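Many introductory courses stop at the sequence. We go one step further.
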Amino acid sequence: MQPVFEKENGLLFYPVQYEGEELSKNIFYIAETVNQQAIPALDYLLAQGKKKFYLLGTDYVYPQTTNLILYKYLLWRGIPADDIGGGFRKDDSGKVISAGKYVPFSHTDFQQIVADIKQFAANGDACVINTINGDSNVPFFKKIVAAGLKAADCPVVSFSLAEDELRSLPTKNLVGELGCWSYFMSLKTPGNKTFLKNWYGWLKTESYPGVIKEKRAVDSPIVLSYNGVYLWKKAVEKAGTFDVDAVRKVLESGDISFQGPGGKITVQANHHCTKNVYIGETRANGQFKILETFQQVVGEPFVGETHRLQSAEQ
């Protein structure tokens, strides 16, 4: 979509977590960057004493890029390469250009991968970093449960699995697994209370064939889409016009904030956003218990190119 928005000089407010490593004058990246989701999750796990990290994801740009950044970050934090599971791919000079194990979209056979994870975690202090996207999470977690891998022994932290996806999983068997987002449905903020009241009120007026409305859930991408509308609205009001260049200039000023369901979100000059980040633990009802909050984390799109991570790799 980026070339289209740039050609037509439109504005895109992108509400889904992404790998960073880009910047466009026509896109405002309001969702979680790697340093607002994956890295806080690793910091939490390291603080919990985890020493071995198995990287697993779907074979496309977000998991590949994120896991390569996390590989460098773990090296920088002192984790030996031998304790980063999932495998590596190197170029002709010996530099690691891919880290982790990858499966295609809609992959269902996780028997061997889960067996590898079980062996990797056999000596304790291990965890799984999960960037599997979409319906493959269902057979993956079912196989995790069948293998007897407990969250207390080898937790799985997921970056593409939120409340809506949990509706398709046996959550009673997944209590204690982890997620990291800038919003959870269980947050007790005033903004979230109002948002959920409006959400449930709207559901009563709608009809979706085949969907049990009581089980409908909201999650971070939904809330960030909602935030994006209000950030744009505030910028338009301040600019006094719908003109894209004028609205963009206001957004880049650093003065546009919104008190959303997940807390305050502020647009930065680099088109990313400062916002709260939450570590959550899955509960039997498909919701998350908040374990830790990182207040007002600045979005950094090029964290994978920082000097400290490049030097760690060497």
